[in-house]
Amino acid sequence: MKALVLEAAARAAHEAERAFSIAFGEQYTPHWEQLPEADQQALLSTVRRVAEGWAAREIHEAWVSDRTRAGWRPGPRDVMSRTRPELVPYDALAPVERDRCVLQCSVASAVLSAFPLKSRVW
Fold first, then answer.
1. Could you read off the pLDDT tens digit of each residue along the chain, which spans 122 residues?
2. Which of 37, 101, 23, 62 has the alpha carbon at shortest distance from 7?
3. Taking the domains of the chain in order of start, what are their residue ranges?
């Protein structure tokens, strides 16, 4: 049950972020099923952190740290070069990128809160 709830929250958060991206003219975000395993795992980590009460700022900073350790660096979005423009401190993000972080966290939190408190041992 726990894994299913976490994945449901990650899927919902991702699809909300995907819709947000499309609204801003970004067409590069695939559906959950088409995401690389590493990206799915990163989203599951985000959801676990949301379940533990982390704020969007803390989750972003942890994501930057995780990605940096995996060899990514700041720069224009390029999977082959392992660069992403969002690999900067939270305060350096454009407002729209901070909104994207808050959106993902809010959706994940909403899904997680739909389950009884006794099942929230992540």
1. 588 999 999 999 999 999 999 998 987 789 999 999 989 999 999 999 999 999 999 999 999 999 999 999 999 989 899 999 999 999 999 999 999 999 999 999 999 999 865 555 55
2. 37
3. 2-119
96: left (phi over 0), alpha (psi -120 to 50) or beta: alpha
Q: What six digits make up the tokens of 53?
A: 């009460």
Terminal CA-CA length for the chain? 10
Whether the Cβ atoms of residue 43 and residue 15 lie closer than 8 Å to each other: no
Q: 78 - beta bridge partners? A: 83
Quote the CA–CA distance of 116 and 21 in Å, as a whole number: 31
Under 8 Å CB-to-CB from 35, ≥6 apart: which residues?
14, 43
Name 71's Cβ contacts closer than 8 Å, sequence gap at least 6. Answer: 82
For the whole model, what pTM was predicted?
0.87
